[in-house]
Request: fold
Amino acid sequence: ERLNFLHMNHFLTNQDNRPELDKYRFHHRIDDDVFINKNIEENLFEVMHSQNYKLATSKLSNHYGPNQRDTRYELFNFCKNFLKENTILPSTDKLKEAIMNNDEKLFHNLHWSSGHFNLYDQKFLKDDNRWINYISAINSHGGIYKYRWGDLEIIGLFLYIFYNNPKLDLKLASK
Reply:
């Protein structure tokens, strides 16, 4: 019954394979459960770009409850294996610490994007060979369909692996 949702997760994480989207540097993912009740005066893409962030989101959170557990099931193990197989040391200190100490709880306490209002700078995905290798490993593993991994987990983890401080919290909920 969730197959269409899983197809959407696959689409959102594999946009670099869509030639019709190549002319757009920035992508905005907005979900149907976002309720914006006043105008956003700033150009959020410009704010993100001017500060050299790869992702901006309405809210970063390190909350870890049943929903997060369900959508990140086996992601920590995938991450450890991917890093080991590719001899990669994460760029983000907290992820590096979680991997080195085999601390899954610390992994889940990274700050993850809201998932329902994300801006992505596609330049850092489609033009990066590391992304091509990473998303290929994700797709081969099947985590999108087996475990419901979505763009916030997949793209967020990629950014934590290869960039230090890659996410901008727009704090829209408080505005």
About this structure: The two ends are 36 Å apart (CA to CA). DSSP finds ten helices and six strands in the chain. The chain has a mean pLDDT of 90. Residues 6 and 145 are 6 Å apart (CA to CA).
